[in-house]
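lol ok so funny story. i was supposed to be doing the assay writeup but got distracted and ended up predicting the structure for this chain instead. priorities right. anyway since i did it might as well share w the group, maybe its usefull for someone
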Amino acid sequence: MATKGEMVRALAAQFDLNPNKVDAMTRAMARKGLRSPGGRGRAATHMSGEDIFHLTLALVMNLETKDATDIVSELSQLPLVCGDLIRDGHIQWETTQDASELLDALQRLPVAGLEMARSFGAFCGHWLEQGFNAPSEGFASCSVSVEISSNGPHAVFSHQSEDGDLKVWFGTPPGELSEPEWERRISLSDKLFRRLAVLAEGSRS
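and the output, tada:
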């Protein structure tokens, strides 16, 4: 249930940064349309999962404020392109560049009724709001992680549970990636995702 100020203070503490620097970053995000208007006092708006995810991307990538909005915007808009679910070493289902088929499969796994978005930022933001919200199904003990690569660029969302290992791919499809001379990779761990989800609790319906 984080307001803009609470989000800034929490992420500044999480990444050991000056809160003023984080505040400047989130203001830049708002100007670019990557963050909800904040408001003040009783009118303060609760930040969405997507707002929190966008700011986190800028901070974990150690971006300069002047560059952050363009880079985060590009990553956030990466389209969902393929995915698979593997259990006990066997592919349970696999889809390639058929978003409708993949979205249909994701409605059933790993959380029944969890609507999935077609872009990376919206997908991860919605997951922060709703994805861990199924403790009665034992889902809270499952592991989630995200890896982002400059190659393409592309991003991979991973989820591990007793139902299998799920991977959802955004951006440049695997078959179209070239062998880079260099590559920058950023990983968001399950532990970090859960801390971000606490900030997004107020956005849950």
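The first strand starts at residue 80 and ends at 87. Residues 77 and 119 are 5 Å apart (CA to CA).
back to the writeup now i swear
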